[in-house]
Structures are given as structure tokens and as C-alpha cells.
Amino acid sequence: MATINSLTLILCLQTLLFIISISSTHSKIFQPNDERVLQFTCSKTPYPNRCVASLLFAPNSYYADVRGLGQLMIDFAMKLEAKAGLQEIQELQLGGNKPGLDSCAKKYKTILDTDIPKASVAYNKENFNSALIAANDAANQATSCETAFPGKLTDRNKIMKEVSANAAAIILKLKGDNGGVLY
């Protein structure tokens, strides 16, 4: 009886190994783009290091084509930076009313509630003109915040401006007469 159980177990293991070996040798292997598309796309933006840093940990960025990276730049990177900016502003507001801080809060809320959704919807519809306008508006909002409240949010505003400008650069490349290819 023990011999039959051992033989059955061995036979099952061999069958399992055979099935695994066939499926792994005959199936299509999906490999990430090894950051090549990401690196190349980011090299064509005004702030390439910020672009790579913004997209490196974005969901599926390793598998995204240029169009997908543009979408991630809007929906992931811009949104992440705008939320971080608004959180930093809210923390500063806890320390008391500071001139210009309320203006910055409104600007970052506009980025989150208006500019990013407009850019995303337009981008999805391949309305690159409207997406470009919305991304540029987000960069302008961050610049306006720096003017209204200089100093304490300089780094945050700079990051928001750079991420938005990078999104605009990718959109602009897709909008161009290059057939939607960044190459």
C-alpha cells in the first residue's frame, strides 16, 4: 500500500513538472521594457530626472508605452504631488494664518479638482490640446503659489511645476506630427 502511494506521488510530481515545463517553454514571456521606454520618454522632457523619479514607482510604469507613461504622469505623478502640496499647506495653516497661504490652498485644490481631471479626461479622448492646457495650468498654479507665499513651499511648488511641465512635454510630443510616437 505504501508503495502504491509513493508511486502515485512520484507520478503526480512528474506530471506536474512536465506541465510546468511545457507551459513555460511555449508561452509568451512578458518582459518589462527594462525602463528603456521610461528613460527615453523622460529624456525628452524639460526635467528628465524628475520625470524618472515621478514614474519609477508608478503602477505598471515598467510595462507602459509612451502614451501610458503620459497617462501615469497625469493620473499618478501630478495627483501625488498635488496631494502632497495640499497636505503641506494644511500643516502650515495649523501654525496660524499666514498671508498668501489660503491662496496657495485654493491653487492646489484647483490643481486636484480641476486641472488634473480635465487633463486626464482630455488625454483619454486624445484631445491633446485641452490636456496640454490643463497640465500647463497646473504648472502655472504652482508658480502663482510661490509668488503668493514665497519661501516655505518653494521646493513643493518647484516639484509640482516640474511634474506638470513634464506631463505637458509628453502630451506635446503625442500631439505633434510624429504620429503619436515620441521617437
UniProtKB/TrEMBL annotation:
It comes from the Eukaryota. Keywords: Signal. Residues 1-27 form the signal peptide. It holds the Pfam family PMEI. GO terms for molecular function: enzyme inhibitor activity. SMART domains: PMEI. Residues 33-170 form the Pectinesterase inhibitor domain. PANTHER family: CELL WALL _ VACUOLAR INHIBITOR OF FRUCTOSIDASE 1, PECTINESTERASE INHIBITOR-LIKE. Belongs to the PMEI family. This is Pectinesterase inhibitor domain-containing protein. It comes from Crotalaria pallida (Smooth rattlebox). The lineage of its organism: Eukaryota, Viridiplantae, Streptophyta, Embryophyta, Tracheophyta.
